[in-house]
Amino acid sequence: MSKVTDDSLRPHLTALIDGELQPLEAIALKQRMRQSPELSAECQELERLKVAVHLAGTRDPAPDALKRSLEAMCQRHFDAQRKKQARWTTLWVPLGLAASAAVGLLVAFGGGAAGPEGPRATPPQLASITVAPAVVLPTDPNELLPRLAGFHRESESPLALADLKNRGALLAIERLPDTFITPEGTKPQLVQASWMGCNERQNGSTLAVLRADRVRLPPIIESALDATGVFVDIIDGVHVRLSVSGDKLFVLLSTDPGPNQSPI
Amino acid sequence: MGWFGLRKQRDAEREFMERVFVHWDAMHRYALRLTASEAEANDLVQDAMTKALQHFDRVRPDTNYRAWVFTIVRNAFVSKVRKTSRETLLEDADLLAADPEPEVGLALAALGGNRFKEGFEDEVLLALQQLPESQRTAVVLCDIEGLDYEGIAHVLDCPVGTVRSRIHHARKRLKAALSGYAKTRGYRDVESHG
After folding, report:
1. Measured between alpha carbons, how far is residue A141 from residues A172, A209, A214, A249 in Å?
2. How many Cα neighbours within 13 Å face the side chain of A80?
3. 20 to 30 Å CA-CA from A222: which of A72, A84, A111, A131?
4. Radius of gyration (Cα) for chain B, nearest Å?
5. Number of other CB atoms surrounding residue A189 within 10 Å
6. What is the mean predicted confidence (pLDDT) over B125-141?
7. Chain A: residue nearest B172 by CA?
């Protein structure tokens, strides 16, 4: 880590790559980065680290057995709730209806004067976050992934993605080595070539980093990403894994390994 | 049960599945990073889902459900840890005092040589595991689950500025640990020679 870089700026770099700086703060810091190659390099290194953590953390799918067991648990809870509510309805609803009718009559014949309102029950304070409206590229939502898959298969030139880059939707796209050090590892591994600064041994996967708020995806993918943060599919023989972190959409493309091998 | 009651109950069930249950795999990913054990992570997710079921009817409709489920997972983890005293939950002051000298290759020391074979992503996960819980949670929720600082602040029950500081210190440690890995593998030379 460079000694030249002002230490007080480092936490701001972290916030910058997470998209958490105020617009004016971000402009000031970017201006500073243009004057300081060390700061700029440090920022890039932090971004690569963020991507590395994201890819590592979303690599292994959650076990299906856990999903089934959780579904069964929820169903048991719902069944118990229904039984409980059925008992409550049988006992108290007739009584409640009668009481409501009596109160209704009292209000109607009492000139409609309502009593003072009691304090309203306040629900527990929980997180409430407003999502800003997205600025979206006016492109066909179905064309983005086939285009990226075409780039991965080298059937499309990098120029085919120029419009995405020019409009700030495509932040980076790079080819990654297929395996790292030992191909006999138990799980398929990916390593960021630029993070490690190592030589690429062979052409492997492709990683595209996009601005999530500037691209349109088919609704089924949007809802999967909203719900779980990850979406996996095979498009034109290319294994595609989408995941979201902050305002970034990561698209990891690899050639479909076939039925006998596990995909990345 | 009357028709209205049944309908309300079904709506609540559907809402739970659409707003909370869909995050089951994110809960599992986070639980796995907290416990570092598949079996314990599964138990933790089950505990958290039970609590979510019990408290769902009291949640405000404009709640960030994703942040809410992570809060439940974390609270379940913290209370379990306090009972077993297995992991020390450090306060910020302790973390900052420990931070200026990040141990290069900290993750490697805990590993043993043979784990090198498993590759870089395992190394990243291992380096994450070496972080104190609050820093780990901040960086996992930010980088893996994509929560913003406000959401993470709700989960950690701390100000947004503290989240920023925790993520900064966590990344500093991660960089040191992973640089150690690259160095041990001889990649520094490759890097410096282009």
Report:
1. 19, 17, 11, 14
2. 8
3. A72
4. 20
5. 24
6. 94
7. A46
Residue A208 region by backbone torsions, left for phi larger than 0, else alpha for psi between -120 and 50, else beta: beta
pLDDT at residue A131 in the model: 41
Across the interface, do B17 and A181 touch by the CB < 8 Å criterion? Answer: no
Residue B144 has its nearest CB partner, among A14, A53, A180, at A53
Distance CA B75, CA B24 (A): 16
Look at B67 and A187 and tell me if their CB atoms are within 8 Å.
no
Pair B174, B127: CB distance under 8 Å: yes
Contact between B29 and A53 under an 8 Å Cβ cutoff? The reply is no
Question: pTM for the whole thing?
Answer: 0.65
Using CA atoms, how far apart are residues A161 and A152, in angstroms rounded to an integer? 12
* pLDDT at A84 > cutoff 90: no
CB contact under 8 A, B164 and A229: no
What is the distance between the alpha carbons of residues A16 and A30, in angstroms, rounded to a whole number? 9
A9, A13, A18, best to mutate vs chain B, most B CBs in 10 Å: A18
Q: Two tokens at A210?
A: 């996009």
Q: Which of residues 74-93 of B touch A (CB under 8 A)?
A: none
Return d(Cα B140, Cα B146) in angstroms, integer. Answer: 8
Q: Which residue has the tokens 């590759």?
A: B119
Tokens of B128: 């994450």
- In angstroms, the CA B40 to CA B31 distance is 8
Residue A64: name the closest of A75, A76, A72 by CA: A72
How distant, in Å, are the alpha carbons of A130, A169, A203, B53, B144 from that of B58? 20, 39, 52, 10, 28
**CA B68, CA A162: separation in Å to the nearest integer?**
39
User: In the prediction, which pLDDT does B113 show?
Assistant: 38
Contact A188, A262 (CB under 8 A): yes
